[in-house]
Hints:
Two copies of one chain form a homodimer. The first copy, chain A, is α+β, with helices and mostly antiparallel strands.
Amino acid sequence: xxxxELLKVVMGIVGRENCMDDCAILPCGDQVMVATTDxxxxxxxxxxxxxxxxxxxxxxxxxxxxxxxxxxxxxxxxIAVGLDRWEQLAGVMQGxxxxxxxxxxxxxxxxxxxxxxxxxxxxxLGLVDKQFLVQRSGARPGDLVCITGIPxxxxxxxxxxxxxxxxxxEPQPRVAEGQMLARAGxxxxxxxxxxxxxxxxxxxxxxECGFSLSSDKIPxxxxxxxxxxxxxxxxxxxxxxLIFTLPKELHPIKGVPYTVIGEVIPDKTVLVDGxxxxxxxxxxxxx
Amino acid sequence: xxxxELLKVVMGIVGRENCMDDCAILPCGDQVMVATTDxxxxxxxxxxxxxxxxxxxxxxxxxxxxxxxxxxxxxxxxIAVGLDRWEQLAGVMQGxxxxxxxxxxxxxxxxxxxxxxxxxxxxxLGLVDKQFLVQRSGARPGDLVCITGIPxxxxxxxxxxxxxxxxxxEPQPRVAEGQMLARAGxxxxxxxxxxxxxxxxxxxxxxECGFSLSSDKIPxxxxxxxxxxxxxxxxxxxxxxLIFTLPKELHPIKGVPYTVIGEVIPDKTVLVDGxxxxxxxxxxxxx
Lengths: 287, 287
């Protein structure tokens, strides 16, 4: 049993339409509010070596990334912290506060709990004008498949490449980029936190077309031998880059560095060099 | 170190103004959006004997109660579930969904995590017209201190009075009552989830006046000998009644059952029968 199978259980109860995007979409005056929640905790997410400040930073960053992927501006964060040692609270809160401040959001609420394991749940709220909202559905055959930054670096740290510590420990959500891409007219967008392959399968689930990538176009983390670097780029989790689809005539978008890695195809399938990649990446598993 | 001491640490980082009410207050078109988050988990909150459906129900209810205490209508819930056993997910989600449905809210987002201990974090969003928003500050000397329902029943279960199981396991947030009280003109409001005594000390912290109760006016849970029943009523946690202050000339408010238990006084102090009650109730403690 993995995350995506469990999501089907949830869909059966709360409705499929409430499980399709990185954020919920709520009316808010003339604008749209997007809302998202993320649970992180010691065992799964906060690796050894991270300090309290980085734990707080990461907890805020992952939620701001979901907001960015809708083309929205992050505005508010609520943060629930379950602590085994209360001494960690100040560092965690300062890290979350600094991350919010950098990206234009404010911490407006929270909860503190005595917990057996350090657990942080952040809920982010963002705003976007309705016409600039980007969802996971909307890709059209012929659109370019693109990604910001270099995927695979966070996972590379987990596999021993310590030069990528900052990427994993202090993720930088693509907040400004998300809004610029939305205004430029991208047709779908999400972050690649579970890896490119799983992200494309997620997009496949909500679009009536498919995605064909060329492995030689995907940027690889530097200083890592092949085929490991390519493997990391395609399947590595823990990055917070934006994957998006873009009508060809809108390429290139000025002011946002990104790489074209493939094309939207009429066939409802995911292909890398013409072959379906494994449906794997960052997932939780239950036995 | 307890919750309220840790809250001071948080205030130092995110600002006191973001820690004063049950909910954050956010502009949303012509209305005000209130937002709140609560973390519950097996060890502290889900007592033995609760089934998965009740765990989900309680997780939603505590958050809807915070929204009710602002006079707002609950609209949206996000729910993050950390699971040790995936088999619990459907029950938890169904309980949360049923609670939301009863009180007019919808589950619009969430997260699923593999966790060592069952942990549920709910974030609620509600809407209220600006003129009907009620906060913790606003009490004026001469106002009546009032409470809905009968306090102490949830704690009574924990002390062996099994007839109160439903009160503890399936709390019924005062959602309709909160909105009616707000429209009727109450000056402050909060829920009594940490007990009456602690709630009044919380109100004391944000008002320039005090609160004087008469113990013989406080309703006591039935079937429990004194002085235990009075002790439960004053200090017991786990209830979700509304405590509020009301200008005398507005009493009685029609359609909402409540009891007048005291009066707002000019002195900045909390008194029960003329004596300051202990500053205790439901709190987490760290060593």
